[in-house]
Amino acid sequence: MDLTRRDAVAALAATGGAVAVARTVLDSPSTESTAADAAVPEDALASLVAVAEVVYPDAATGVDDFVETYVAGRIADDDARRAGVVETAAALDATARDWFETPLAELDPETLDGMLRDLRVDVSDPDPNGGLPGRVRFYVVNELLYAFYASPTGGRLVGIENPAGHPGGVESYRRAEMPPETEDDG
Amino acid sequence: MADGSSDRTPAPPADVCVVGAGPAGAIVAARLAEAGHDVVVLDAGPRFDLADREAQLDAHLRPGVDGLWDMGGERDAYATDGPRDYPLNAARVKGVGGSTLHWQGIVMRLHERDFELRSRHGVGTDWPIDYADLRPYYAAAERELGVAGADDNPFAPPREEPFPMPAFPPSHSDAIFAEACESLGLPTHSVPNARNSEPYDGAAGCAGYGTCKPVCPSGAKYTAERHIARAEAAGARVIDRAPVQRLVHDDAGRRVEAAVYATPDGTEHRQAARSVVLACGGVENVRLLLLSDSEAYPDGLANSSGLVGRHFMDHCFAGAGGRIDRPTRQNHVGFNTTECHALYDGTDPLPGVKLEFLNYAGPSPVTQALGAEDWGDTLLDDLRDAYGTHLAVGGLVEQFPNAENRITLDRSTTDDHGNPVPKVRWSVGPRTRAAIERANEVQVAVLEELGAEVDWVVGPDATGPAFHHMGTTRMGTDPAESVVAPDCRTHDLDNLWIAGSSVFPTGGAMNPTLTIAALSCRLADRLDGWL
User: Fold this and answer.
1) How far apart are CA B178 and CA A92, in angstroms?
2) What total of structural domains would you count in chain A?
3) Residue A184 domain flag
4) Is residue A181 part of a domain?
5) Which of A40, B53, B280, B306 is deepest in the core (most CB within 10 A)?
6) Interface pTM (ipTM) of the complex?
7) What is the distance between the alpha carbons of residues A151 and A138, in angstroms, rounded to a whole number?
């Protein structure tokens, strides 16, 4: 399943993120830098993409565009969330550099997966004001999982094209089967 | 949270002071303001900004995000001392809109038998009014709330006009249940929803967020904010974060003169009014009356009968669920589209049972993912395994009034203003237990008819309340046996009226808000005439 910027905009619709900003991104050629992208440091985005490659299923491809668009839209007008995401990504990156003398974005997925588990991010309660595992779970892992599974993108992989949190209308609950994906989904 | 007006000083003496900005008070306020009366509304909680609803959705779905409706803490402290715990702060919201901010929005009329339990069956008590008295107000209430429904319920009382909007069509899982229910002789029918199946009265149609309870970001679900907006457009003054501390009466003890309220800076003010409408819900109505005791009313204002706080009732949940070997397509929407009222009128056991066929059985994938202890392909496998084949039948079960179930004051604990907090004593009696067991038998039979593997049952030991607070200032003709008269004015005081489900003498097993709204329309008519 190839993730696209359009999928990211659909994910944003579920979150109340800055959809207008995201749509600007959607309309931009993927190689152009945008004002929204500039709101998030590149190294933070690279760290988020690396974590997404671990926490998303292997079936998901095109993760980088999806994450960059989603994160940009999500935090474009939310200073507190932007600070939390950027600072936590930086702290996680610093941990990678400390443990492996390698930037987080350059760790291979198995190593990064092991690092997250060694930090106990997998079993920590998400806590925006807690220690590093709780903050990573909240600002990084759950932010990414929310983008994925509260949108038709991830929902479809599970079997639901209109998951909770997504304003997918009042037709899908009546269907006996999930229809094939169309460009209008989301 | 909206800033609202920072001026929380009293208005000039008003025609009407409404205490509480939930549906009961907001409807009264809107109708009386539109009739040309000077209306002031005081609410203990804040105004919640409509622009924050999507962030509140975030708070609901994502663990670790606080502040959905800001309930809890010293302001909302309470106690329980009955055989059953009662999670009061999960059951209510304080703020402009009241508990409609987090409700599910199911709205049906009481059945005719609900008004005549004593006469028909020798249990409970009769209402002093009957269905025919309330029938035109039910129609008005359906227009006020914006109800989507269909006249397809063979058990429902007679109606005089169509619902304002068409019903939401049945779900895929409704069709699955219909097969089994037909085999078992259980007619099914649509659910009246206070939720827009199409744009209505300036509000959007349902967008399918699937999170109706506790928050609807689209505005399609009715909240009492709509009536507060109407009241303000008609000139009413609405003061938020202004908890009323006590009501003050005249020397003769016949009229309330003012509501004394506090503001966030700790100042107390007096709002004088020709009439006062108490609309704080079945718990806080009682608390405010008890806090307003005086020499004339040593046991609490309007409590000559000694019944203020007694006969506290809720609806008890009964349910069963399991999995079948085909897709059930759950968790697309957060409301139900099919019910069955076949176990309601003249049944054995006698307490009414309303069956609900859920559209949200089993885990929601996003919620499960955010709480999972794994990720990647393993998480996806777990989500796929958990989603897709769940079914569940829920239900509400009636409680008959019991004077020992009651709201009192816990004088050992105080709130943020130093007032004693409410104490809830709630129990489930043998008749209700038997009716829950009967509901479970039918629920399991339906599931087994479908070949389901039943993996949970909520019966009489595990049951909990549906968060419908009823009965604590009951309506009647005899001042010794009731708190308010049939017009919802207190027997004791000439200008004190009570709106909301606290006046219900019995509660049936139907969600109460349509009846609350109908009584508020009726109260507004009576008070308009009185003014």
Assistant:
1) 53
2) 1
3) no
4) no
5) B280
6) 0.94
7) 18
